[in-house]
Amino acid sequence: MSYILDIGGTIVNALTSFYEWVVDAIRGFIDWLVTQTNTYIIQPIYNGLNTALTHFIQRIDRILFVLNTVPIVMKTWDELITKPTWKTAMKLILAPIVGWAKGYFVKKLLTTYWGETPQIQLPQISMPTTAPKLPPYYLKYVDATARITSAYQTLLTTPTKASVDIESLYQTLLTPPSTCLAEIGSKYETYISALPITKASVESLYQTHLTVPTTQLATIQSACETSLLSRFPVTAEIESLYQTEVVTVTSKFNAYGDTGNDYPWDISHPLAVDSEGNIYVVGRTNSFGVAQLSPIIIKLDSELNVVWCRVLDLGDDGEFFSVCVGGDGYIYACGRKGTYAITAKFSPDGELLACKEFTGMKQLRQVEWYSYTDELVLTGVDMNTRAISFFEYTDLSPDIWGGMDGVDGYGVHPKPNGEYTIVGTRHDIATPRLWVGVWDTKGGNCTAKELYDVDRADSPIHGRACRWDGEGNLIVVGKMTNTLNKAYVFKLSLPDFTVLWARRFTAFEVSDVDVDSEGNIYIAATLQDPSLPYQVLIVKIDKDGNLIFSVRAVGTSDEYACGVRIGGKGFIMAGALTSWGAGGYDFGVGDIAPDGSFCVSESVDVAFESVNTGMVDGKVAAYAIGGSVNDLTPTVLSPTPTKTVIC
């Protein structure tokens, strides 16, 4: 019996060492798997290894019986044949009994040492009852602490009462979305490579929800907490990266000016945004020591800080109506000096490179870069108040090639394929109508239509601005000039001028329009309420003509919205303010969140409704434009406007 126990002990020691080595190897393998994949792959391996080891222990007696009996029986049988004795015969008979006994005692020792069902002590693996579903907003919004959630809720519900500490906390946390995108994408993609979520799905979710309105914060937080953070092992490194992404968008709204009047004209296009997020705004000023109204241009960085300001003292009344950033990187502005039109060219650093006067034209109301020929296209009115279609080369050498008799031009917008549109008013008839002309190329054919409201056919509609969307449709806005105070927006399919939809809403004036990448339409307008002063009005409409929001800025005196461009946190707006600023009228510039909310805004009912649109062929009566071109050498002032932070 001692012989059996000695052998059994040796086998137990050997098997114990082997088992511990297997367990260590499996632990290392599982640790590696945890860093590479997820519990859906680890768990089957874990279960399979435990089952295999359990079966090994349960069958150890049979294994040892075979290992001990077969060799002895074979050796004893050979001895019995060569040397038959009673001892050899007894050894052969007892061999199976000895083999069974060894296996029995070894199994007893093993099960006493390990138990009937040994288990590998693996790292704790939390297995959800159902597969984790990635919430659609997670890739943009993660709020990890109750402190941040509470701070944001305070800002959301009482923005004007938010403490300095809360503002500081959020300014520290919030960085532009592009800051960590590449690093997050790389690490997150590696981390979830074994999940049933493809790279394309992740990218699509992220891109789709970059601009989720802040009103969905509760849904976002709930989805993160219940569907992901509590069920999916997000690593600290990845979670930290997501913390730096923008949790919410806080609008900014400032005033810029001096003690006089500094502001854009309310029927103009005074705003441009370059590829780096810099903002250019133009208008008129009688501050900074000039003796009369003078053209002014201000450059702001993406944080709405003044980079430079230039005032052109022309020795006569003057102003800029419009500004654009050329494909050559220069900044172009247009407007008037006295009774003649002017254009100006600035370097990105604010150096005046050229300024010219055109005596054949009264005003140039909008300038845009025409990428088809790498030059400028402008519109306005000549000395007889007729619309012009006018081109300049980048050195401001004019190429004046046409006008439309009986039409004044207010807005122009080109397409990359060579088409461009001018919108204005047909004014040589009893009831003026909104006029839209589309040129196929520079100097090419013009097709025009005139639009009116069938239900108010005796009320004039004046065209103000136009913009092509990403699908080749044309967005046109105009204003009904009577006591009804109605603004109009039309969506037209070209080239047949099909009216896809038309809407009207209450507004004293409408000035500008722009379209984002999703086809949403932003309109800058001015609201007149009998019980209140004039107010900034911003209206957002989706691509199908549904109202998304209409908000106004409520001050104590008159304010006007003059320009809107896509950019910044959602969109940039510019206007004229009197309730805030250094005195008189001041420029107002806002970097506004996609939901239109800012500290002095409130929702307003603008009686948004559909329009029964009438359309007739537009007047096309081209004529040549005369006049001379003169170089100007104005005195250039470089003042620093006072910045007043409203929010």
Task: Give a structural overview.
The chain is α+β, with helices and mostly antiparallel strands and 647 residues long. The protein folds into three domains: 2-114, no CATH class; 146-243, no CATH class; 252-624, 7 Propeller (Methylamine Dehydrogenase, Chain H). 26% of the residues lie in helices and 36% in strands. Strands 2, 3, 4, 5, 6 and 35 form a six-stranded antiparallel sheet that branches. It starts with a helix and ends with a strand. The model is unreliable at 1-6, 115-148, 159-235 and 237-247 (pLDDT under 50).
Uncertain regions: pLDDT < 50 for 5+ in a row? 1-6, 115-148, 159-235, 237-247
Q: Could you say what the CATH topology of the largest domain is called?
A: Methylamine Dehydrogenase, Chain H
Give the end-to-end Cα distance, rounded to a whole number of Å.
93 Å
Provide the number of structural domains. 3
DSSP strand tally: 36
Q: Overall 3D geometry?
A: globular
CATH level-two architecture of the largest domain:
7 Propeller
Return the CATH class of the largest domain.
Mainly Beta
Say which CATH homologous superfamily of the largest domain is assigned. YVTN repeat-like/Quinoprotein amine dehydrogenase
Q: What is the overall number of helices?
A: 10
SS-based class: alpha+beta
Helix content range: 25-40%
Using only CA atoms, what is the Rg? 39 Å
Strand content: 35-45%
Mean pLDDT: 74
Biggest sheet descriptor: 6 strands, antiparallel
List the helices and strands and how they pair.
Blueprint: H1 2-36, H2 39-58, H3 60-82, H4 86-114, H5 146-157, H6 164-173, H7 181-191, H8 199-208, H9 217-229, H10 236-243, E1 252-257, E2 262-263, E3 271-273, E4 279-285, E5 294-300, E6 306-313, E7 318-325, E8 331-337, E9 340-346, E10 352-358, E11 361-370, E12 375-382, E13 387-392, E14 398-404, E15 407-414, E16 420-426, E17 433-439, E18 446-453, E19 461-468, E20 473-480, E21 486-493, E22 498-506, E23 509-515, E24 521-528, E25 534-541, E26 547-553, E27 560-567, E28 570-577, E29 586-592, E30 601-603, E31 609-610, E32 613-617, E33 622-623, E34 629-631, E35 635-637, E36 642-645
Helix pairs in contact: 1-2, 1-4, 3-4, 5-6
